[in-house]
Amino acid sequence: MTAVKKAMLSCLSSNDCLISAARLKNYLNQQGITPSRSTIWRELSFLLKTGLIRKVTVGRKIFYEMNTAAHQHLICLHCSAVFPIQLDLQMLQAQAEQCGFQLSKEQLQIFGCCKNCSRGIDPLK
Ligand SMILES: [Zn+2]
Ligand SMILES: [Zn+2]
Questions:
Q1: Domain boundaries, the chain
Q2: Could you report the per-residue pLDDT of 86-123, keeping only the tens digit for each?
Q3: CA-CA distances (angstroms) from residue 97 to 91, 93, 100, 101?
Q4: Ligand 2 centroid vs 20 CA: distance in angstroms?
Q5: Ligand lying closest to the C-alpha of residue 121
């Protein structure tokens, strides 16, 4: 395993949820690893192929996370903070079935306002 891949995996697994390629690159830079963007893309697509990580699209942005048990995401519209949650999907499944609808992806995203933002604290400052 390459040093870049190793560092990427340790970042993805210590970050328990979605992370963008840009943040991943920042993290690597902090570790003194400075891969090019194309190296990062190559490693990401390799990790996706092996099934170790998965890709999640939020709006137009692409994020990555470890391919752990399925979960859903609460996403703050203000600061883009992401909170993993576990919903009981049985009701969703049952209602979909009533419509004769087959669910293929259970990447449920719920948008709102996080605690920091609702307090008026800008976490980006
Ligand atoms: Zn997640
Ligand atoms: Zn927020």
A1: 3-66, 72-118
A2: 888 888 889 999 999 988 766 788 999 999 999 876 65
A3: 10, 6, 5, 5
A4: 16
A5: 2
**Ligand 2 center to 17 CA (angstroms):** 15
Ligand nearest to the CA of 83: 1
Tell me what the mean pLDDT of segment 11-23 comes to. Answer: 89
Q: Does domain 72-118 have CATH number 3.30.1490.190?
A: yes
The whole-number average pLDDT for the span 16-24 is: 90
List the one residue out of 111, 121, 48 whose CA is nearest residue 80.
111
Q: How far apart are CA 112 and CA 125, in angstroms?
A: 20
If one looks up domain 3-66 in CATH, what number appears?
Answer: 1.10.10.10
- Give the ligand whose atoms come closest to the C-alpha of residue 19: 1
The pTM assigned to this predicted structure is 0.79
Report the separation in Å between the CA atom of 54 and the middle of ligand 1, taken as the mean of its atom positions: 9
